[in-house]
Amino acid sequence: MLNEPRREHICLSPPSERSRREFLIAAGATGAGVAAFLIVGCGDDGEPDLVMLGYPRQRIAALSELRQGEPVDFAYPAGGEQNFVVKLGEAAQIGVGPEEDIVAFSYLCTHMGCPLIGQYKDEHKIMGPCPCHFTTFDLRHNGMVVLGQATQNLPQIALLVEGDDIYATGVIGLFYGAGSNLRDARVEVRS
Hints:
Blueprint (H helix, E strand, L loop, with lengths): L19 H19 L11 E4 L4 E5 L9 E4 L6 E6 L14 E5 L13 E2 L4 E2 L8 E3 L5 E4 L8 E7 L2 E8 L13 E4 L2
Antiparallel strand pairs: 1-12, 2-11, 3-4, 4-5, 6-7, 7-8, 8-9, 10-11
């Protein structure tokens, strides 16, 4: 083994012939490529580079009707998923509106699918603790888990504001128990 020549490339041989090291390098390269593909950015024209195709565009609320700290419920994308939109009162990652403080998420905990309805805490801008296993999510940071058993962020609903109207335009993440949020959804990166 020590006298073998160093390989300058990875040969994608059948799995039974692939070494553990080759497999890990290939898996890491694939993961890095997927991560680079999914990074959200804006082009020179200010339009998002990441576009979610196949999701319906649905009006979910009006800016003028939102009150800070009061979640507004809506169903999206297929009508059965329970979601909420809330004005946090401080800027959030991927927030929309004049103050970039409006965000929307699924009501279902990513750990076991328990409903989080009634668990929003405006003082800390969190959803939770989940009544089943106490997971808590930070809504300022893309629904990130801050405490508890869940290992994934709350699915975030992509929003668009036009005038006074707020539209749901896609979902970032999977709803609890779903293999796909939509049958025909796909992601396209604009160049």
